[in-house]
Amino acid sequence: MPLTRRRLLTLTGGLFTLPGVLAQPAPIWPSKPIKIVVAYPPGGVSDVVARALAEQLAARLGVPVLVDNKAGASGSLGVGLVAKSAPDGYVLAFSAISPLTLSPHLGKSAFDPVKDIAPVASVMYSPVLIAATSALKEGDLKSLLATARIRPGAMRWATSGPASLGHVVLEQIRATTQVDITHVPYKGGGQQITDALSGQFEVLSVNTSSAVLQHIKTGKLRPLAVGAPARLNNLPTVPTLAELGYPAANLSSHFGILAPAGTPAPIVNRLNGEINAVLSTPAMRERLLAAECVLELASPTEFAQLIASESASMARIIRDAQIKAE
After folding, report:
1. CA angle, 249 as apex, 245 and 253 as ends, to 5°?
2. Cα(291)–Cα(279) distance, rounded to whole angstroms?
3. Using one digit for the tens of pLDDT, what is the confidence trace for 217-232?
């Protein structure tokens, strides 16, 4: 049988191409600006860390890395926008993992947390701080709950939004104590902190940050408890929720970089390596420590496993505490 062009391609499985039909080389990545969608408003710990990360990533990758805040639905809005973006490595999300592990269990999600999102890199976990504003006269969490029992609904507890981890902390405490506390949900931490400083409510659950710790230092906020594996270095006298008898509420927020599903593995792995390198620098470590955030380095596979594990845990917590979306 003569070795025709068609016969040659058949024999080589199409791996060998003849002049005129050469395969196009893979495009060089990155060749244009990268956008990181921060799923929360400006001013919070996620925004501060994302901007610091973007600055150093730009220097390493040789292209601008821009930050775009898209807050709403406790992070699900920003993550959903990224889930619908082209899987080419140029649009990423920086978010807590709660839009993947918590929100889907409380209501219908605009995206599939498994099929539409590719975990890229874990960044940190941030303790959840329970703090009092000037409106709270009680001295500690125990006294707050005692007043809430006597005056149902009188105590107002602000969170960064429904289906946020701070909301779950509140619901766990309400379920354990059977007291009536009014939930005041916000669309992120920025306005929540502004209103806290003017005493618009009695107590709030918020992720730790340098700004929050500064407000505590100046006496504008008063720490009552923290959700963390151990007491914080900057707040050594503040007990964990586990110490106070609320182990199920002793939760911290995990944050990381996410990409649209289908993003090529070489790009995901390159991003993971560069992000881990940035996070390992003294400057980034100091920035995280100043906000009482704990560095978490992981491969994409390890980050995916963390997300799957937390999703299973949140599903159990929501079911057992009968938490409903508001």
Report:
1. 140
2. 14
3. 999 999 999 999 999 9
